[in-house]
Design brief:
Strand content: under 5%
Shape: elongated
Distance between the termini: 81 Å
Largest sheet: none
Structural class: mainly alpha
Length: about 170
């Protein structure tokens, strides 16, 4: 019988028992021990069962130590799942301004940029088929359209000068 077949049930049981106190998944402990086994020379293991038990406990200790080392960022709150009406209104206004500017871009840019912003997330092949252009020309066209859009939006939004004054 080979070593993997012989040790699998013991390793699974040991990892399941040790995982309870570590906060780590038992499968992760198993994987770490299998990796240790691959790094080890099988001839160096006179008692494979004892080696498995020792290796699982060592990986569990390591997992507990790593868990204690982790700490949340001080002073930072988790993202609020409900941003509130103010942020929703600001986001809607930004989208409206963006779509209005996209509509004023030249040539195929409105169709291309609208396709890129689609919630369906189309591939380049799908966009190229929709616009009836080659897939290879989408990248350069996208760069030109985004540059045009960037210049249009920069001209509409006055950048503050030095000292906080607006032009």
């Amino acid at each position: 019988m080979d070593l993997v077949t012989e040790l699998s049930p013991l390793l699974a049981a040991e990892a399941a028992a040790e995982a309870v106190g570590t906060g780590v998944d038992a499968a992760d402990l198993e994987q770490a021990v299998w990796l240790r086994l691959l790094e080890q020379q099988p001839a160096d293991m006179p008692a494979p069962a004892r080696w498995v038990r020792t290796a699982v406990r060592a990986e569990a200790r390591r997992a507990r130590w790593l868990r204690r080392q982790e700490s949340p960022y001080a002073g930072e709150r988790a993202a609020d799942p409900d941003p509130g009406p103010e942020l929703a209104a600001l986001s809607a206004e930004r989208r409206r301004v963006l779509h209005a500017a996209i509509g004023r871009t030249p040539g195929n840019c409105p169709r291309l940029l609208t396709a890129l912003l689609s919630p369906h997330d189309p591939t380049y092949r799908e966009i190229a088929g929709e616009l009836d252009i080659s897939q290879g020309s989408l990248g350069p066209m996208r760069s030109r359209c985004l540059g045009c859009l960037r210049r249009m939006l920069a001209a509409e939004v006055a950048a503050p000068e030095r000292g906080g004054k607006e032009r």
